[in-house]
């Protein structure tokens, strides 16, 4: 397979523009553009001491409608909001910043707030706990029998951060909260010891923040493993820095690496995160996605349902239609995870189902590859299939798309209808006093069906 039409079309007018990142030190200047007062900007600085902030020139110049900020959805997607955290926490840190408190004091206050935000939902860190006297493999999560996630050490940042990001703990400078590894040989040994694994998801952060030589160092060794059917790359870069595949110095080399994966007989799935239709508008995105697809890779799209950003059916319908036009495969609508500012961004499950249904019914069957709304909860990915009435009682119908115990996959179960519920733990069983899957927790006794819960370790 060879790259075709390597040159960017004339409509792509950002050739040569270099990447420029903006961090918390630029917040005051940038938020002033949104017309915020000095006190509002100070509160946003306070939030940014707890949660990470990073954006770039492409997002700022091409995606945000500054005339509509701070209500603009793309602005809200990357810039902290004053009410993302409890008012008392924001006031406390704002006061420290106002009086010029020592950095150590500000950091300590920020750490206290972070620890209240469930930094690692779904038992993520527990997936690396040593069990059966075995050592964990850094950077590895064996979430489901056939699927391993890997977090490369050099991929622990992104071109820009989303305010809703459930992996915010990777970016706040606290080593104990990070998941990262750089020993690819050890990863290979782990995979060989677990022949049930057929798919590796390279994630982060964002793996596409890595240059091609580093990315190659992680990917090439995996091509030697016959057991692997697919390699996935989870990335927001197609939305936040499409230059990565068009005008960056190593764009062509990266595409050749993608080709090599496909030529090795592996399915290369590029898991692209698009949260709003505007991210799909620039010509650069069309050209970058074309070049990726020309390597034989499949672009699958996913995003969470986020209040104030994309919580209307028309937004999702528009997004799925545009993705289909660009040759992408709509894959997941997620529910905002139970971490970070979930209270601020979460949409109740009942409303999430309505948004999904009302968007889904208006698109063609080719868009209906999408699944959702799905919760990536501790026992697995739980999909809300609908609302029914049985015996005069209103109930949620749900099923597992993925489960740490495969026996529960695609088996429907029921929960009492609760219009305020936003997460699996808010729901109550409709029949009996417990859900069928309760008891599936990481780190427990190992049985035939919960071996993956024991954590990734080498024999």
Shape: globular
Rg over alpha carbons: 22 Å
Report how far apart the termini are: 39 Å
SS elements, strand count: 13
Fourth CATH level, the homologous superfamily of the largest domain:
Aldolase class I
What is the CATH architecture term of the largest domain? Alpha-Beta Barrel
Write the layout of secondary structure elements.
Blueprint lengths: L20 E3 L3 H6 L5 H13 L3 E3 H7 L9 H6 L8 H12 L4 H12 L25 E5 L2 E4 L33 H10 L5 E4 L9 H8 L10 E6 L1 H4 L10 H13 L3 E7 L9 H12 L3 E8 L7 H13 L3 E7 L6 H4 L3 H12 L10 E6 L3 E11 L2 E11 L9 E4 L43
Parallel strand pairs: 4-5, 5-6, 6-7, 7-8, 8-9, 9-10
Antiparallel strand pairs: 1-2, 3-4, 10-11, 11-12, 12-13
Helix pairs in contact: 2-5, 5-6, 8-10, 12-14
Give a summary of the structure in a few sentences.
By secondary structure, this protein is α/β, with parallel strands linked by helices. It is 29% helix and 17% strand.
Explain how this protein is built.
With 459 residues, the chain is of the alpha/beta class. It has two domains: 21-114, no CATH class; 121-454, Aldolase class I (TIM Barrel), CATH 3.20.20.70. The protein contains 14 helices and 13 strands. The strands form two sheets. The chain has an eleven-stranded mixed β-sheet with strand order 3-4-5-6-7-8-9-10-11-12-13. Strands 1-2 form a two-stranded antiparallel ribbon. Helix 8 packs parallel to helix 10 (251-263). The longest helix has 13 residues, at 38-50. The model is unreliable at 1-16, 128-133 and 441-459 (pLDDT under 50). Its cofactor is pyridoxal 5'-phosphate.
């Amino acid at each position: 397979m060879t790259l075709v039409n390597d040159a960017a079309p004339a409509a792509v007018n950002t050739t040569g523009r270099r990447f420029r990142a903006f961090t918390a030190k630029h917040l005051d200047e940038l938020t002033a553009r949104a017309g915020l007062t000095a006190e509002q900007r100070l509160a946003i600085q306070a939030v940014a001491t707890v949660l990470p902030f990073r954006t770039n020139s492409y997002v700022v110049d091409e995606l945000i409608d500054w005339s509509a900020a701070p209500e603009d959805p793309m602005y809200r997607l990357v810039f902290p909001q004053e009410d993302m955290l409890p008012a008392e926490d924001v006031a406390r840190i704002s006061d420290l910043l106002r009086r010029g408190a020592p950095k150590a004091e500000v950091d300590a206050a920020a750490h206290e707030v972070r620890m209240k935000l469930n930094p690692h939902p779904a038992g993520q860190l527990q997936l690396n706990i040593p069990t059966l006297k075995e050592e964990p493999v850094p950077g590895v999560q064996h979430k489901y029998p056939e699927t391993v996630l890997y977090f490369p050490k050099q991929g622990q940042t992104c071109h820009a951060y989303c305010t809703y990001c459930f992996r915010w703990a990777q970016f706040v400078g606290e080593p104990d909260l990070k998941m990262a590894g750089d020993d690819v040989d050890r990863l290979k040994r782990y995979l060989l010891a677990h022949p049930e694994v057929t798919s590796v998801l390279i994630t982060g952060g964002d793996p596409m923040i890595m240059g091609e030589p580093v990315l190659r160092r992680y990917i090439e060794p995996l091509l030697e493993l016959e057991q692997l059917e697919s390699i996935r790359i989870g990335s927001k870069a197609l939305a936040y820095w499409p230059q990565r595949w068009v005008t960056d110095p190593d764009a062509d080399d990266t595409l050749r690496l993608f080709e090599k994966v496909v030529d090795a007989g592996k399915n290369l799935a590029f898991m692209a995160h698009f949260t709003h239709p505007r991210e799909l508008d620039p010509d650069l995105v069309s050209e970058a996605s074309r070049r990726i697809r020309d390597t034989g890779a499949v672009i699958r799209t996913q995003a969470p349902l986020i209040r104030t950003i994309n919580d209307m059916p028309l937004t999702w319908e528009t997004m799925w239609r545009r993705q289909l036009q660009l040759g992408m495969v709509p894959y997941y609508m997620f529910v905002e995870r139970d971490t970070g500012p979930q209270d601020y961004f979460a949409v109740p499950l009942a409303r999430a189902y309505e948004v999904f249904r009302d968007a889904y019914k208006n698109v063609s069957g080719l868009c209906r590859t999408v699944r959702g709304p799905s919760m990536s909860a501790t026992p697995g990915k739980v999909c809300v299939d609908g609302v029914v009435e049985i015996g005069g009682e209103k109930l949620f119908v749900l099923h597992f798309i993925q489960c740490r115990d495969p026996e529960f996959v695609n088996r429907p179960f029921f929960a009492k209808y609760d219009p305020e519920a936003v997460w699996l733990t808010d729901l109550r069983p409709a029949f009996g006093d417990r859900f069928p899957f309760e008891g599936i927790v990481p780190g427990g006794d190992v049985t035939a069906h919960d071996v993956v819960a024991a954590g990734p370790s080498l024999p």
